[in-house]
Amino acid sequence: MNYDPIKSSLGKVFNSHPVLRKLFYRLLDLLLLRTWHVHKELRKWASTHSGEAHLLDAGMGFGQYSFWMARYNPNWNILGVDVKEEQIADCNDFFPRAGISNARFEFADLVKFDKYNAYDLILSVDVMEHILEDEDVFKNFHASLKNEGVLMISTPSDQGGSDVHDHHEHDSSGSFIGEHVRDGYGIEEIERKLKNAGFSKIESRYTYGWPGKISWKLSMKYPILMVNTSKLFFLILPFWYIITFPFALILNAIDAGITLKTGTGLMVKAWK
Q1: Lowest mean pLDDT, pick from 22-31, 94-103, 219-228
Q2: Class of domain 4-271
Q3: pTM confidence score
Q4: What is the rounded CA–CA span in Å between residue 195 and residue 270?
Q5: Which terminus in the chain has less CB density within 10 A, N or C?
Q6: Tell me: the pLDDT tens digits for 48-61?
């Protein structure tokens, strides 16, 4: 079952006006638990990087993380890259209209992307689970970082991060996220691959523990399942979120604030 078509439909609605686009970003920041964890790590990094810095948003998608980073510190120069031309053009159109001049976007295949010693930080959110040649990408990230630069990765874990353990044998739809090339990373696996790529220090922790799993079902899985069934459910979504939104926020805050022994997501940091 794919959710890219749903994301595209929602994106078209919110892209109709810059105010709606900013609202869309804000909703993503609140509803997507991965954003809570990513922002937490970015704030830690920012505490020691207040001056000029060069950041790569590797697989920027809608551009919400580039938007957050560009606004967080005007001294940061952000390059967002993706393989989807329509999203690149869309972001290059929206950001200037939103008054943001320190972010730009271009096409790049991360398997081939290599800008030697160019970045202080590389952020990759929900990207690596889509790329088969992950070890090539990790080597490219390492080469593209400056010395002591940091790579941040948010990706599903092997504890059910692609929802592959949450369906029955008779369910022909398979994994909820049909675009993934792997079911998720184990901590030992991703750390080994990053070390092989040349990274000297690696820290990994679980995300999407029991609070996050409940929140994700309320805020993402069930609404997407409904909309996949019929576009008429778009009319029901506002009422759904009025009821579930407060609970999702509380669960997201718990998940981002505690140490999790296991979870369906991983937050990984690696230093060059």
Answers
A1: 219-228
A2: alpha beta
A3: 0.87
A4: 9
A5: N
A6: 998 999 999 999 99
Which amino acid is present at 83? Answer: V
Backbone CA torsion sign across 166, 172, 176, 177:
positive
Higher pLDDT, 15 or 40: 40
DSSP state of 99: T
Distance (Å, rounded) from C-alpha 228 to C-alpha 194? Answer: 37
Q: What is the largest CA-CA distance in the chain?
A: 55
**Residue 92 C-beta-side C-alpha neighbours within 13 Å:** 13
Cβ count within 10 A of residue 51: 9
Tell me what pLDDT residue 232 has.
83
Q: In the 8-state DSSP scheme, what is residue 185?
A: B
- The CA distance from 116 to 98, in Å, is 31
CB 200: neighbour CB atoms within 10 A?
A: 12
- Count CB neighbours of 126 within 10 A: 19
Query: What confidence tens digit (pLDDT) does each residue in 166-182 have?
Result: 433 334 344 445 578 88
Q: Contact at 8 Å (CB) between 252 and 38?
A: no
**255, 33 in Cβ contact below 8 A?**
yes
Structure tokens at 212: 């996050």
